[in-house]
Amino acid sequence: MNKDASDTSAPTVTFDESTVQLDALQRAVYAVADVMTVDITLSHGRFDCTLFARNRADDAGELEHRLRAEVIDQTLRLRIAAQTEPLRNLIFALAFSRTGLGDSRETPS
User: pLDDT averaged over consecutive 10-residue blocks of the chain (109 residues)?
Assistant: First the structure.
């Protein structure tokens, strides 16, 4: 039997576009790809995610829980990355400033 996104037996998890970035959602889907595939559609400011278990014996509730937990994890990772970006850039700038790689005053011999 071939399942598609219109299959009403497949569980669906919905995320609000104002609280979850598509990037975080896609990263989460990738992280759970070993146990499920996910069809993501955007409708009226919501991401509707239809879950398809790789193993028919997997519990739909457990799949939903795993996806929700992974979306929260990826959302926090993106938020932390955005908040620490200025500090990371400063560290990289300092590290590379001491290598001489960016020194345009040096001339090749």
Answer: 57 96 98 97 97 92 97 96 91 83 59
Q: How far is CA 51 from CA 35, 59, 67, 96, 101, in A?
A: 10, 11, 9, 45, 49
Hey, what amino acid is at 72? I
SS3 per-residue string spanning the chain? CCCCCCCCCCCEEEEECCCCCHHHHHHHHHHCCCCEEEEEEEECCEEEEEEEECCCCCCHHHHHHHHHHHHHHHHHHHHHHHHHHHHHHHHHHHHHHCCCCCCCCCCCC
Q: How do residues 45-65 score in pLDDT, each as one tens digit?
A: 999 999 999 998 889 999 999
Give the pLDDT confidence score for residue 70 in this predicted structure.
Answer: 98
Rounded distance between C-alpha atoms, residue 53 and residue 15, angstroms: 19
